[in-house]
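Changelog note: in this version the structure field was regenerated for every chain. One regenerated record is shown below for reference.
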Amino acid sequence: MSRAARLRLFLTGAAVLAAVLIAAADGLPAFGGPDHPYGDRAVEAGLARRAANIVSSVNFDQRAFDTLGEESILFASVLGATMLLRLARDEHRRRPAPARVLPSTRLFGATLLPVALLTGGYLVAHGQLTPGGGFQGGVVLATALHLAYVAADYRVLRRVRPLAVLDVADALSAGAFAALGLIGLAAGAGYLANTLPLGTFGALFSGGLVPVVNAVVGVEVGSGVVVLLARFLDQAVEVVPDRAGARGTDGGEG
């Protein structure tokens, strides 16, 4: 297909898509109006399931199937990056050189690391009660672990980072989300239907399926981000080419 033909095909598809989007937007309620049917129904459903955080209720209950797709995208992205950045035949690892860190940076990182881990764990554990949840808490947990890299160096991060365990946790938690949907089917409801005991509103174990899915997502996101960053850091710090001009990095400290 010639360049002109590809351009005509693109413009035709873009025009059709633009017309559909304009027609759909024209049917939306006006901004700032009193009619918010989706919000009203989402709040009503969240309170009925005894989930105080309506956002988590939407993510892990009312639209849990959509969230399963989002988590699967993250898992596939981590898997793809891991495959692409694996050690090639024309590359080898070298021992990373120690880094020089300012005493103030070392003190700040060492002090903040346990605080960040605690904050991330809190966000995951209380996702059905307060703002936060598995996605946000998982990122905070992964970021907290990498404060060891900022406060010390890559060698310290390697010692405190159980990469093999996190690889397995990433895969198991991604599969666990899909498996949790079978609970609803076993109870005679729909896939990922919230059929677990709802508990008491405002309690830690309330919301039925919401805290369970939220915790699984927190583990998957935290593990996935750590594994993903590990592959990039490997390339930046450890992996060097076997010969001039081969694939790899220059091995400079990232």
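Spot check on this record: Residues 244-254 have pLDDT under 50 and may be disordered. The chain has one domain: 3-241.
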